[in-house]
Amino acid sequence: MAKNQGPLSGFRDILAPEMLSRQEMINTIKKVYESYGYTPLETPAIERYETLQGKYGEEGEKLMYKFTDHGGRKIALRYDLTVPLARVVAQHKEEIPLPYKRYQIGNVWRGESPQAGRYREFLQFDADIVGTSSLLADAEVIMMMSDAMRALGVNAVIRVNNRKILDGLAQKAGIKDASRARKFFSIIDKTEKIGIKKTIEEIQLSFGKKEAKLIGEFLEVDGTTNARIKKIKKIIENQNPNDGILEIVQVFKILESAGYSESEVIFDQTIARGLDYYTGTIYETTLLDFPQIGSVCSGGRYDNLIATLSDNKVDLPAVGTSVGVDRLFTALTKLKRIKPIKTKSQVLITNFDQKDWGIYVKLAKQLRQERVATEIYYENSKLDKQLKYADKIGIPWILFAGPDEIAKGVVKVKNMQSGEQKTITLKEFTKLLV
Amino acid sequence: MAKNQGPLSGFRDILAPEMLSRQEMINTIKKVYESYGYTPLETPAIERYETLQGKYGEEGEKLMYKFTDHGGRKIALRYDLTVPLARVVAQHKEEIPLPYKRYQIGNVWRGESPQAGRYREFLQFDADIVGTSSLLADAEVIMMMSDAMRALGVNAVIRVNNRKILDGLAQKAGIKDASRARKFFSIIDKTEKIGIKKTIEEIQLSFGKKEAKLIGEFLEVDGTTNARIKKIKKIIENQNPNDGILEIVQVFKILESAGYSESEVIFDQTIARGLDYYTGTIYETTLLDFPQIGSVCSGGRYDNLIATLSDNKVDLPAVGTSVGVDRLFTALTKLKRIKPIKTKSQVLITNFDQKDWGIYVKLAKQLRQERVATEIYYENSKLDKQLKYADKIGIPWILFAGPDEIAKGVVKVKNMQSGEQKTITLKEFTKLLV
Q1: A29 touches A38 (CB < 8 A)
Q2: In a 10 Å sphere around its CB, with 0-12 CB exposed, 13-18 middle and 19+ buried, how is residue B176 labelled?
Q3: B-chain residues near A129 (CB < 8 A)
Q4: B7, A107: Cβ pair inside 8 Å?
Q5: Which of A23, A136, A147 should be substituted to probe chain B, the one whose Cβ sees the most B Cβ atoms within 10 Å?
Q6: Can you tell me the mean pLDDT for B387-407?
Q7: pLDDT tens by residue, A21-80
Q8: Which one of B35, B121, B259 has the shortest CB-CB distance to A373?
Q9: pLDDT tens-digit map of A348-395
Q10: Distance, in angstroms, between B269 CA and closest chain A CA?
Q11: 0.90 exceeded by the pTM?
Q12: Tell me, what's the pLDDT at A241?
C-alpha cells in the first residue's frame, strides 16, 4: 500500500464496528449527564490564536496547530474544551443561565509525536458547572461519574481528595514557595505509578528527611474514608486554613446521604492531579477490573481558571469532569462490557430476480416500519455471494421471498448463526426480531 | 463587547436550545439511515494536502484551509466528506464490505467570505453506497430520503431526474463538446431560480434559436411522472444511448412497488444539479410548505468519481445523498416542526437549608433513576432567585422538600407554567412526569 494512501500519522479513520460501540458508550454517558441537567455546547474547531495563546504553558504552545487564515489572521485548532468554555461564558454572559452546566463532546488537536496510543486528534468529553462554589456541585459531579460508570456496567471507584489538604501538608512541611510546592505535588502525583516508597525517596532527594518522613506518614494512611479523614486531619492539624478537611467531610456527607458506598467513592489523600489549576475537590476514577489502565475520568474544582482563561472578562468558580474517551473505550472493550457492532441490520433480503425487486422493496419497507433494520442485496448474484456479504457485515437473518411465498403470504427466513430455517408470515418474523 | 471575545467570523458557538433540537433532527435522520443498513464512519478533520489537492476545482483550492504541520508536511482541513470517503475505500479495501453503505456526520471547513448564512465551518451529513451500479440502490437512496422527511414530520417531494436524459437532450441539440455541454446544463440548472422563460432566453443567447426551441419544449413538459416520461422520451427519442429513460422508468417502477406516491417522489426533467460529476440518477428535495428555502437534501449517482478522488486506486460506482443540515434546521424551525429545547431537566429541587442537602440528593437520585432529569439548586438562595433560574432554563416543575415532607413521605411540587401546586408522593409525581 502506498504510504500516502492512509490518513496522516497520529490521525485515524473510525469504521463501523468501533464507531457504533463508541456511539453507544458516549450516548450512555450523555444520558446520565442529561439526567443531571447538563446541556450540550458546541464551539468551533478553530479559534483566534490570541484566545488560545499562553493558556497551555510551554508544551501546549509547542503542540498547538497554528496557522493563518484567508484574511491573514493568526488562528489555531482548539487544544482542549476548557478555554473555549471560558470564552463562551464570557461572550454569552447574558444568555447563559448561571450556574451553567454544560457538556461538550468534541475533537481537540495536538501535534504530539505519535507514539503508541498518542493521537494528534482525539475526542474530549467534558462536563462542567460554572458559577457556583457550592460543595453540592462538587458532590454532584462525583455522583454523576459514579452513575455513568454504573450505567456502563463497570465496577469503578472514584477516589476523591482536596487540593487544600495537600496545601495544608505543604504548609506543615514548611514549603511556602509556589514553585517548590508545585514540585512537591508533582512528586505526590506519581505515587500511584511509582509506589509510596519511591515517592518518599524522591521527596527526600528534592526536599529533605523531615519532609520525607511527613510524606511517608501522610501517604501510608489507609482504611475507610472516615478513618482516613481522621488520621489525615491529625497529620495536618493546626494548619491554617483547614478548609480541605471541612470540605472533604461535607462532600462525603452528601455522597453518603445519597447512598454512595465506599465501594463506589472513597477518600484517597494520594490523589494530586497533575494540573496546577485545581483549587479544591479533585478526583480520579479507577476501574476495579482493569486498574492498570489508569484513571478513566478525572476532574475537580478550579475556581480561578475561568478568570485566567477569559483574560479576566469573567471570574466564576467552577467544577468539572473529563472522560478519557479512548482509554475508557479500550477498557470497556477489553472487559467485554461493549463489543464491536458491525451493523444494526437484522435482515438481508436476498435478490434472485430483477422482476421481483418490487416484492423486495415492499417487504423491506414493512420491516423498516416495524423498526427492523433491513437491507436488500442490490444485485441478483449467486446466493453464495449474497450470504458472504451477510456474513461479512454480520447480518443475523436472511430472508428469501419470491412470487410463490408472497402468494402464500409467507417468507422463508434463515438464521445465519444457527442455520435454522423456517417459513413464516412477516408478522411472526417481525415478532421474533423486536 | 470587545471584538475578540467572540469566535472568528464565519464560525459559531451552538448553545443548548439549538444544540438539543439539532441533535434531535440529526438522530431522527440517523435512525432512518440505520434502518437501511448504513453504518457510521469518522475520518480526521485534517488530511494530507496531497489527498485533497486538485479535487475541488479552482474555487475549492482557494477556499481550502491549508497549513504546515509540526513535521513540515503540507496538510489541509477537510473540504467535504466525499474525498475522505474515497480515501477510506481505497485504504481499507480488504476490511470494508462491498457494497459499502456508510453515513458520515462531520464538520467541513471552507474559507468563504462570511456573507449572510455562509459559514466557514459547517456540518455535512452524507450517506453513500459505494460498489454497486444496481438501480435498486438509486431507488433506495430516494426512498430513504423520503422516509427521513416523513420521520421529521415535513411534507417533502423528491424530484428525480437522470443525467443521461440531459445528455440525450444535449445530443439532440447537437452539442457535442464537453465544455459546451457543461454550459448547457448549468443554464438548465438555473430553471428553478430564474424560470423557464429566462432559461430559454439564456440558451438562445449562448447557443441559438433551434436549441432554445428544443429546451422550451423540454422544460415545459409537465404532468404526472408517467405522462412526463412519455413526453420526454418523445423529445429525445432516437438518441443513442437512451439509457436515461430506461433507468428512470426502472427507478420509478421500484418506487411505485414500495408504495411511494406522486406526492412524495416525482420525475422532474428540469433538475440538473450543479456538480459535474453526476452520471445517472440525480435528485433534489423540495419542502412543500417552504419551497423557497431550496433543496434540503440532494444527491445522485456518480460512477466515476471514486476513481478520480482516489487517484485511481479504486474504481467503484456509487450513489449518495447529502442533507443540507443548516438549511433543513432553519426550515424545520420556521415550520415549527422542531422547537428550541432549552433543557431536558424536568424538575428543580429547591434548596432551603444546607442541613437538608442529604434529602435533596436522595430525592434527586430517586427521580433520576426513574429517568426524570432533575437538578438541585446549589445554594440556599432566596426562593425568588431559584424560581428565576428554573424559568430561565425552562424547567417545568419545582419541587419543595424538607424534613416535614419527608417525614410524611410526600413532596410539594409546583408547575412553573400553570402555577398549579400539589403535595403528593414521589411515586405519584414520577408517574405524572414519565
Answers
A1: no
A2: exposed
A3: 378
A4: no
A5: A136
A6: 93
A7: 999 999 999 999 999 999 999 999 999 999 999 888 888 999 999 999 988 999 999 999
A8: B35
A9: 999 999 999 999 999 999 999 999 999 999 999 999 999 999 999 999
A10: 24
A11: yes
A12: 64
| Per-residue pLDDT band at B2 (split at 50, 70, 90) | very low
Q: Identity (one letter) of the amino acid at A196? A: I
Q: Report yes or no: A190 at the B interface, CB cutoff 8 Å.
A: no
Q: Which chain A residue lies closest to B395 (C-alpha atoms)?
A: A37
Contact A42/B19, CB-based, under 8 Å? yes
Half-sphere CA count of A149, side-chain side, radius 13 A: 29
Give the residue among A155, A193, A201, A172 at the shortest CA–CA distance from A272. Answer: A193
Query: How many C-beta atoms surround the C-beta of residue A369 within 10 A?
Result: 12
Q: Residue A174: beta bridge partners?
A: none
Quick check: A355 contacting B, CB < 8 Å? no
Which residue in chain A has the smallest CA separation from B144?
A365
pLDDT in tens, B347-378: 999 999 999 999 999 999 999 999 999 999 99
Grouping H, G, I as helix, E, B as strand and the rest as coil, residue B90 is helix
B102 to A139: CB separation less than 8 angstroms, yes or no? no
Answer whether A8 sits within 8 Å of B361, measured CB to CB. no
- Greatest extent of chain B over all pairs of C-alpha atoms, in Å: 91
Is B358 in contact with A258 (Cβ distance < 8 A)? yes
**Given pLDDT bands bounded at 50, 70 and 90, which one contains residue A240?**
low
Nearest to A162 by CA among A233, A103, A211, A215: A233
Spatial CA neighbour of B353 closest among A187, A371, A136, A71: A136
Q: Minimal Cα distance from B130: which residue of A?
A: A378
Q: Inter-chain contact A375–B14, Cβ cutoff 8 Å?
A: no
Q: In what order do the strands lie in the sheet with A121-130?
A: A39-40, A100-109, A121-130, A318-324, A297-301, A281-287, A156-162, A265-267
- Calpha distance A252→A258 (Å, rounded): 10
Q: Can you tell me the distance from the alpha carbon of A110 to that of A59, in angstroms, rounded to the nearest whole number? A: 10
If you search the block for the grid coordinates 441559438, which residue do you land on?
Answer: B208
Give me A270's grid cell: 494520594
The enclosing H or E element of B202 equals: helix B191-206
Contact check, Cβ <8 Å, B51/A4 = yes
- What gap in Å lies between CA B283 and CA B294, rounded to an integer? 12
CB contact under 8 A, B378 and A14: no
Angle at B404 between CA B399 and CA B410, to 5 degrees: 50
Residue B391 sits at the chain A interface (C-beta within 8 Å): no
CB B67 to CB A68 under 8 A?
yes
**Residue A77: HSE in the Cβ half-sphere, 13 Å Cα cutoff:** 23
- Residues 6 or more apart whose CB falls under 8 angstroms from that of B261 comprise none
